[in-house]
Amino acid sequence: MTARNRTTPRAKAPEPNLRHVWLAGLGAVAIARRRGAQRLTAAKQDIERIARQAQATLREVRAQGEAGVEKFSADVEARLAPVLEKLGLASARPAAKTRRKSATGKPARPAARKRTGAGAGKATTRKRARA
What we know:
The chain has one helix and no strands. By secondary structure, it is mainly alpha-helical. It is elongated, with a radius of gyration of 40 Å.
């Protein structure tokens, strides 16, 4: 007797229908959301890292700028000191900082008070004069 190779018949793939399309779409959306969330988290971390680097660089630049301004100020004061002494304008101590006045010279008005209580939301109206 000869041995026959018997193969089991394969089950046919079900015909795609609307339900299969719907489930495939849901799966694609779930995968996209997961990947999108991962990418969003990675982008957020990158932005935070870049912000920290920018702040560190800004601190360095600011420190360098302040050092340069202080040096420039000291140089100007050193060069002007003899001239101010000759003019009799040199003072023993630096002038105190003064507050700026408004352009009109009047003090600023205090802030308006917020109305509270029963009549807070009502607008006032004028009474008409009787004839």
